[in-house]
Amino acid sequence: MLPGLWTRTVALLLGRQGRSLHLRAAGGATAVLVVVMLLGSYAVVAAEQGARGAQITSYPRALWWSIETATTVGYGDFFPVTLWGRVIGSVVMVVGITAYGMVTAALATWFVGRDEKRRHHLAGEAEDAARAMREEATRALHARFDRLERLLEDRGTS
Length: 158
Description:
Elements lengths: L1 H14 L5 H28 L10 H12 L12 H75 L1
Helix pairs in contact: 1-2, 2-3, 2-4
């Protein structure tokens, strides 16, 4: 089941041409984070199994530990006591920090891009309005010059 889900997830993330690069990167980082948390939970249970003072002895506890580690909450209620458990914890931390950083950057880029589109749209409307005002002023000047020419012609013929 997991390989099929992983294949579909990767195809979904990479297959959309309309999505921006930062959005695909954030989605990919999130998918990697989920996989690392699930596999890290399993691995830390295996690493901590039978160790003296081990608190992470079941998968549900390990899953909770990986979530609080990846989010850098770190309540301290569960922590690995073996070397391999701490190595796994370090990997979960680094991947978590990276994934949340990428998601935050993607959101910030989306907000900035949306604001840039709005500003560009407003600038285009302002440019159109300025062009229309110049055209109207040009028409008014031409009409005024035409009237002046007629007045001068009428005075010259009388």
